[in-house]
Structure formats: C-alpha cells, structure tokens
Design goal:
The structure is a homodimer. Chain A has a domain of about 80 residues: Arc Repressor Mutant, subunit A, CATH 1.10.10.10. In chain A, about 60% of the residues lie in helices and about 10% in strands. Chain A has six helices and three strands. Chain A has a three-stranded antiparallel sheet with strand order 1-3-2. The longest helix of chain A is centred in the N-terminal third of the chain and has 27 residues. At the A-B interface, α1, α5 and α6 of A face α1, α5 and α6 of B. Chain A binds a DNA duplex through α4.
Chain lengths: ~150, ~150
DNA sequence: CCCTAATAGTTGTAGATGCAACCGGATGTG
DNA sequence: CACATCCGGTTGCATCTACAACTATTAGGG
C-alpha cells in the first residue's frame, strides 16, 4: 500500500535548492534511460518494455503463473491496464488465462513457451542498453551507493 | 542528441547481479514517486505533471516565451505530443501562441498570467510530495552523492 | 540562383491509457 | 443464513500518445 499522498498538508514548501536539482536530474536520467531501452526494442522490432515486465514476473513465479492482481502489485500497473495488456499478450499466444480454482472471480495467467522465447530475444537488447548506458558508466561502489540511497526512498 | 542505442551490438549481456537489482530499484522508485505526485495533483483537482513541466520551462525562459522545439528539448516530449499539449494549454488560456518573426515556420509560446498563477497553485502540492517523500528521507550528503552518481549517467 | 535537403510544426488515424460503472464471486457481521 | 461490503476483473467511453504523412519555411551546395 502506497502512502496516502492525497492528504498532505500543503504549506509553502521549503525545499533546498539542491533537492530540486537532484530530483530533476533523477527524473530526467531515468526517463532518458527507459527511453533508450524502448527505442532499442523498437529498432529490433520487439514489443515494448511493459510486455517484458509482465512476462518476466510470470517466468520468475513458481509454475510460471500468477494471479492478475499479483502481476499488478509487482509492476505497478492498474488493474484495467493489466486486464487489457494480458488480452494483448494472450492474443499473441505469449500467455494463457486459466480459471482459478481457489477463487472463482479471478484467473491465473501462465506464460507460454512462446512467451519465454520472447523474453530470451528481448533480454539481449534490454541488457545491452543497461550494460552500456548504466553499468559501464558507474563503478561497483557507485551502484552500491545508489542502491543504498534508493532503499531509503522505498 | 541521444546516443544511438539502435545499433548496439547484442551479445549475451553479462551484467552483474547487483546492476540489475539497482536498475530495477531505480525504475521502481522513480515511477512510484512520480505516481505520488500525479495522485496528489489529481486529488487537488490540478492538471497533470506534464502541464507543470511545460509551464515551468516557459516561466524560466527570458520573456516567458520559447520556441516549441526548445520546450521539446527540455522536456523530452516529442514534437507531435508537444503540439497537442500546447493546444490544450492554449485552450485553457495558460499560454499564447505567436508567430515567430525570425523563423516563419515556427511559433513562440508564451505563458500567460493565468499560466503563472496555475504554476503557483501546483507548486505547493508538488513540493509537499517532494519534501515528504524525497528530501525528508535523505540526508544532505545522500542527495549530493545521488546527484554525483546520476551525473555520470548523463 | 535554383534545386535539394533539412527543420518546425500540424494532423489523420490507430493504438494505449484513465476513469467510472459494472459483473460476479468472496467475506464478514448480525 | 441473509445482507451489505469488499475484491478481482472487465468494459464503454473519453482522452492521450505513437507513427507516418503532410505543409511550409529555411539552409546548403553547385
């Protein structure tokens, strides 16, 4: 559950200049990197990142299947977006939808062989961008430091 | 100009485990924070973040006006998205479009009084989230360290 | 100058997202 | 067990975004 940010008290914010600068850089850096991944995938005629995220969650899960709401919790997708994204994945035979025995409302989404194969074709593209735009520009210490700072924001 | 990520050599990526973990956390943290800002704005019946970004760029610019492509370069918006976003802002009288004297193709976008007023109403909401979800969770040193790491990724 | 190529911006159309309303099936309380 | 409520998921509709094609203007050679 996310913190309820809709009830914050709105006083005139007194933020340090440096905070705003760093925040802006964080947003810009992240969007730029994501954008590079997306462009690389498109150039390789592969589906968008959202597909990768969902398929990866499924492949990580025991049995290669998850309830839809579990995928949503992991990927931060809303339920209606997920519903339609799974439609698209299903249409491409990358996942199957099965009725759920324990809960008559829901369904289990399972990744197919075609789905895992797609994952394997996407990873080199995704990973190459990560390697060259992210890992290679930072030291191992940088990455650890970054991890520790980000942890405080979770 | 962005690095051309569409011609990378795709070998089997050999990324350190830690790199992938940190990358995942970076993406998740940033999207969560942006999402919190968006929800706070919506709860306050204010327009989305994209409007803020454009209006802020304009207010920062000398004379409160910029060419459309200049806004695009700052905000990472594509030209067609920007074209329509400026349409919407114009419809709400937050900006004006003027023909550009030096370049007959383009136009100058200028922020209006209503536009700056909107900025002033949005900032407390935006800033409050930043203060409570970002600044208050990090030390000044953390923020500086974060800045320096992110700089290497630009 | 003229012709080509590049640039700024718009637009038609298709696809994706957001919102609210909705449909069961599950859960809890009296 | 009856009822209201909650929860997982879907869907209609409006809005927004992506892509490609287009107009109009500027810039660069020969």
């Amino acid at each position: 559950m996310q913190p309820d940010v809709t009830r914050l008290v709105f006083m005139k914010p007194r933020l340090r200049e440096q905070t705003v600068t760093t925040w802006a850089r964080l947003v810009r850096t992240e969007t730029t990197l994501i954008d590079q991944v997306q462009r690389a995938l498109k150039a390789a005629k592969l589906p968008p990142l959202g597909w990768y995220d969902v398929l990866l969650e499924l492949r990580r899960a025991p049995g290669g299947e998850l309830r839809q709401y579990e995928i949503g919790a992991q990927t931060l997708l809303t339920k209606y977006n997920l519903s339609r994204l799974v439609d698209r994945l299903q249409r491409e035979a990358l996942v199957e939808r099965h009725a759920c025995a324990e809960d008559g409302r829901g369904n289990l989404v399972r990744i197919t062989t075609a789905g895992t194969e797609l994952l394997q074709r996407m990873w080199p593209v995704y990973g190459a961008v990560l390697e060259q735009q992210f890992e290679s520009r930072l030291s191992a210490d940088d990455i650890l430091a970054l991890e520790n700072i980000l942890k405080k924001l979770g």
